[in-house]
Amino acid sequence: MKKKRLRLLRAVSAVFAVLILASEVCGIRAYAGQNVPYETYTYDYYKDIKYTPAAYLPDGTVSGETIGCGSFSGPQDLNTDEAGNVYIADTGNNRIVVTDPSFRLVTVLEGFDNNGTWDTFSGPSGVYMSSNGNLYVADSGKNRVVELDSGWELVRIVEDPKSDVLGDSYVFSPLKVAVDYADRIYVIAKNQFEGIMTFDEEGSFLGFTGTINVRITPWQIFWRRFSTKEQRARQQLYIPTEFTGIEVDGDGFVYATNVDPEGKQSARRLNPSGEDVIQKVNKLSGDLDWRAFGTYSGPSRIVDIAVREKGIYSILDSSRGRIFTYDHEGNLLYIFGGLGSQEGTFTTPVAIDTSGDRLLVLDSNRRLIDLFSATKYGELINQAVGLRYDGDETRAVECWREVLKLDSNFELAYVGIGKSYLAAGRNREAMSCFKIGHDKQYYSIAYKRYRNEILKENMDFILAALLAAAVLWVVWSKVLRDRVKEWIGNRMVKRG
Amino acid sequence: MVKEKLKYAFYTVVHPLDGFYEIRHRGRGSVPLAVLFVFLFGVCFSANRQYAGFVVNFVNPMSVNSLAEVLSVFLLFFLFCVSNWSITCLMNGEGRFKDIVTMTGYSMLPMILTYIPGIILSLFVAQDEEAFYYILLGLGIVWFVLLLLMGVMTVHNYTMGKTLFTMLLTFAAMLIIIFLAILLYSLTSQVVSFIVSVYNELMLRV
């Protein structure tokens, strides 16, 4: 009896050991989810939510105290440079905090030397480190954009833009700022619905870019016809939506986010002439469906964008505290984050950026920067998408296979693998992969090749069958039919 | 007898004016056969959602409920017949309810005849050949609409203009019936919940 129990115990412990080892090897520990305060999910082809392993995990928080500059007060923006240094617009304290990649304090900028007199910031709500090493501050309270060099000395102040399109009474109140490689300055200003204001490297106003046209539906026109003047005056104005966040990628394209009350498109990629050239698969505005009333209702309110390498970008939703990541084709890769007060959740997320492999999210109300780092799952997706972006589909396939081991619902991975089958001429396998991945275009290509293959292989049979059918038909119609009829007729006559 | 009725249905599909006339005046139609056609169309409609080829199928297979789809086809059919009957009664239509049911059911026959080959064809098309599938289905639907118009015209002995006008009124009547049904449902459910709460009150308090 005792022996038996011992044996059982041994077997059970062996099984456990194997399980623990297996989980260690596959890295499942990180995906168990017991420490992740949010769900990670994505939308499948049918726009149903598919929960996935965590793509990013909370990796600590950083506050003013831990940096060593005293608590933040309502910070509104955060930006990083290529080296990973972090610039925080500490709006309520009228200062810019600069730290190195590991969040050690570099300096605190409270003002600058303005031609001999000490000038201070007033409610700076945007900050941007340009690729040429100059720091741009959207000094909202003083209606100007301040450009400082790497020694934090004043280079230029951009203020009071003059133009016919702006009018005389226009008050310039910049909220967010970004700069491209040619030192063109892009500014999102308060109550400026015409688009993003652009300035040349000397700081003179060039015009607007990325204007969002107002869409009025026939339904709205219909209702306006039937409303009185008083009613019309009280109706919501049909004005374009405001831009919320802005960033410039290495090629000089401007990525901007806007609030879309219809939840269709909240991210834009503007080419130098101001046209939106972003690629879309589906809607590009965070969540695909939402509740109409109550808590957590309404479309995602996208407030900022982080441009990442290989055409990947993440947008930040302040209404539900989620981060949506897309690839350069507009495929939704993973969604994570949520509202709350645990580490890794937000109350009022306002800005997102990357520093090295980590994602940084600034939470204005909690005065914190939340850090996120990729799990193996997230890393594999990033890697596979990156390889595909570079055109290296064969190496991407290895990554996709790894992704599928962790999440067999990931449709993009099937498409990736299907493409490699297609290239290898294994059309049948390619077809089934594209079918799971719901890529009708590539499925059609694979199917056509497969169909041709089948036809070619069996051509002799098909031709022989056709020939036989033709011969039979001729024999029947020329010779047999009349005889059979005659025969039946004779029998009928005999009977009748 | 059955064979003859079935043959006559196919005759009607290609000779609608003569066909529907004889259905109305010589009793050559069959109500059970018409109901069978409606059922078959419901089945074809649902099968198309479920089994159409990958390239042309945008329906989530998890959302396909054959029973509900067949029932809703029947419901729409019944709603149309009732509305059409109530409108044509007031507008000097000569058709009886029986004729309207037969006519509507027979009109659905072309759709059955195109949906089945359509589903089979859809299994063998690529993306740039999907037009064949859509043309086939579209053909069936257009044929159905034409038959329905001619059917209403012949059965009730209307002119074309009056037929179109009656059709408009029929759709309006359908909407009114749906509205009344929903109203009735919500009022009844309120009455029921009132009675239930009174009952609960009595049982728990007294």
Architecture overview:
The complex is a heterodimer of chains A (496) and B (206). Chain A has helices spanning 2-26, 64-67, 218-225, 229-234, 376-389, 393-406, 411-423, 427-437, 440-457, 459-495; strands spanning 41-43, 49-51, 56-63, 77-80, 86-90, 95-99, 105-109, 111-114, 117-120, 124-129, 135-139, 144-148, 154-159, 174-179, 185-189, 196-199, 205-209, 243-248, 254-258, 267-270, 302-307, 313-317, 322-326, 332-336, 349-355, 358-363, 368-374. Chain A has 496 residues and is an alpha+beta fold. Chain A folds into three domains: 55-374, Neuraminidase (6 Propeller), CATH 2.120.10.30; 399-457, no CATH class; 464-496. In chain A, α6 (393-406) packs antiparallel against α7 and α7 (411-423) packs antiparallel against α8 (427-437). With 206 residues, chain B is mainly α. Chain B has one domain (2-170). Chain B is 81% helix and 0% strand. Chain B has helices at residues 2-14, 16-25, 31-51, 66-90, 97-107, 109-122, 130-156, 160-205. The longest helix of chain B is centred in the C-terminal third of the chain and has 46 residues, at 160-205. The termini of chain B are far apart. The relative contact order of chain B is 0.12. The chains are: A alpha+beta (496), B mainly alpha (206). At the A-B interface, α9 of A face loops of B.
